[in-house]
């Protein structure tokens, strides 16, 4: 999405502009769905969760922060809603395991069939490796390395000390890389 | 054979192409290590590091090494691929449909007015309002029963304070008058009855006077009732003696049809 348009879009949404809200939904759906998927681990659950996040955003759009504070706030809301969702789901049924076929079905918009296949394979590998990390390490990697938030904001969103996030971030990267290598070796041998 | 130095030991052990255990068991290397405390310490530290390295969970040694060298950078470079995913067709429409049913965000006054309308329409609102008003009244003005008790006690004290002196003055006047009248009435009574008459106390005299007044009133009431009864009886007798006639139909009028 065009980052320069976001503040204007946010302001229009705060003013109650329905067209701006629709534009916001269409622009942010991929990002929020990806975040929801990193928590839910299941495509249908991620759609429900992303919709819940959007509804929550819509209900509180009069109180949206403006400027640079918006994206961290958005991720905080999405994260809190995701944690609530996972808590409810853990009561309802066991957490879903990663479905490799489900991940492989994720469409890729990049041009070229070969590049699309490679990217899709790479994504499925990364998702599988991410799901094997511990919850806190996965959140750190998702917020810091996937969505590119500054490490201070990651610490603020997760509510943990900055030093903890720093040390865990480097360890989580190494752990993720080890998982990716192990998974890719396992796939190559298979 | 070259002379083994400390740098030689380190470079050979760290060389990825050699197996460290095999090299240090060579005679020339073993001889140097045996006589060099610095190399012994360094090799101990290297062995401890290898053990800690091997204790890293999940994966074999080669995977861990690769992860710490080129793997981590490559993975981190690819992670932004996951920042945007297509949620599938119809997702945005689904969200817009769900949010279009939501009421628009309004000001707190509007929300408060809506909540008030809902509250007022409830059947129990009058009871609840009365209860809340009573609680507020008690909180502000105190216990109403306590106020009544306080008022009663204060009214009694105020009445004693205000009416006490006149009553005492009246009582003193009565005693004075009794003291004056008693010597004058006593000879007359003795003369009438032939025996001395003790003056009645004021309460007995008041009771006697009240009783006589009540008797007089009762007699007058009884006389009035008797007079009224006699009058009613005379009216009834008079009414029975008079001929009966209808006041609404003059005598000799036309007969009514019986149809």
Account of the 3D structure:
The complex is a heterodimer of chains A (190) and B (259). By secondary structure, chain A is an all-alpha fold. Chain A has nine helices and no strands. Chain A has helices at 6-14, 18-40, 43-59, 70-92, 100-104, 113-131, 135-146, 151-158, 162-189. In chain A, helix 3 (43-59) packs across helix 4 (70-92), helix 7 (135-146) runs antiparallel to helix 8 and helix 7 packs across helix 9 (162-189). The radius of gyration of chain A is 17 Å and the shape is globular. The termini of chain A are far apart. The mean pLDDT of chain A is 82. Chain B has 259 residues and is mainly alpha-helical. Chain B contains ten helices and no strands. Chain B is elongated and about 170 Å long. The N and C termini of chain B lie far apart (160 Å). The A-B interface holds A 16, 21-22, 25-26, 29-31, 33-34, 37-38, 43, 46-47, 50-51, 54-55, 58-62, 106-107, 109, 119, 122-123, 126-127, 129-130, 141-142, 145-148, 173-182, 185 and B 56, 58-59, 63-64, 66-68, 71-72, 74-76, 78-88, 91-92, 94-96, 98-99, 102, 104-105.
